[in-house]
Design goal:
Helix content is about 35%, strand content about 15%. The protein has helices at about 20-30, 45-55, 65-75, 95-100, 120-125, 145-155, 205-215, 230-235, 250-255, 260-285, 310-325, 355-360, 375-390, and strands at about 60-65, 85-90, 105-110, 130-135, 160, 170, 175, 180-185, 200-205, 285, 295, 300-305, 330, 365. Helix 1 packs antiparallel against helix 9, helix 10 runs parallel beside helix 13 and helix 11 packs across helix 13 (about 375-390). It starts with 19 loop residues before the first helix and ends with a helix. The structure holds pyridoxal-5'-phosphate.
Amino acid sequence: MRDFSTKAPNVYQAEPIPEAALTEIAALLQSGDLFRYTAPENAPVALLEQEFATLLGSKYALAVSSCSAALFLSLKALDLPRDAKVLIPAFTFAAVPSAVVHADCTPVLVEVDETYRVNMEDFAEKIETADAVLISHMRGHTSDMDAILSLAERHGLPVVEDAAHSLGTTWHGRNIGTLGKIGCFSFQSYKMINAGEGGILITDDPELVTRAVIMSGAYEHNWKKHDLVAGLAAKWQNKLPLYNMRMQNLSATVIRPQLPELARRVSDGRSNHDYVAERLNASGYFHVPAPLGPELRAPDSIQFNLQDFSEEQARSFVSESKKTGIGASIFGLSTDNARAFWNWEFLGPCPDLPKTRDMLSRACDVRLPVRLKRDELDYIVDALISAARLARA
Ligand SMILES: *Cc1c(COP(=O)(O)O)cnc(C)c1O
């Protein structure tokens, strides 16, 4: 039996920012040139946009202040009517329905299964009266995008991907974020690339990116510093509000040297996750839902369902896990969790979503930063199994 009084791995500790950033940051601070539109060309934010679009295989990228800002600008760029109904999975982060509300649209929550993926029956029913679809690949779990894209196409509705937690995930070999009309990513510290805060949107649609560029705060003729289709920007000049959600050069300078690290982070994260998943599944206490066939994941956390725990045993599992230094949380049993739809009181009356509610009451969440080594992963698994054993005793 392991002694859990020894030091638990810190699952909140980030990876260091690559050294290459230091020289660039020093030069940037020396120049004082932090605003993306001061330099005539090649500002760090503009270079990041080119590099990110190339990395993902999309035509355009626009770097902004957060993924939430990217989601908001995506909906605005689509020019949806006021109060347009936007389908979103009921299992996501509170910032997602918030971005929909911010864009003067109405979020319609779709049931999510115990696999953490969109329930396609509910989706097929609710899409009948929807105006747009925003798929949050929550915690990097990809829903059935073949079915979602074909239903959306049949109804003539645009799909926006919230790929905040899916950078590096592929579906049939294609990058998540390039499947819908627009894909949005986050550079917040708990994501695969860490700038503290930041976001980026990608698209192949020249009109959408032009509208998003202007609304992000490319005032006057600053859109000339983006690689846009000539004529489109002039068409939208002065026709759109300027929401000022730009990224600054310091963030881009922290992000750019991390791009070459992505492939390693993705493969380390996946092998760590799969190792832990196999041990958790073998324990008999937990079930880690398998990825879908076309999906190759890029996880930096793990989710698993408690098997045959009463609510009291589930709560006891959480408190026992805290004592080991590995705090597992259950989305639906922790107070004010921002990923539990009933806490989104700003939306008004709480919808009836029994499948999602049931999933949230059993689904555990543990961070698994990609830098963890095998002995640290073993500590985490042993701690979770020991907590489960005590909770069920
Ligand atoms: C982190 C996250 C967001 C919000 O990203 P920010 O950059 O913090 O705005 C949105 N959706 C999902 C699925 C996330 O994980």
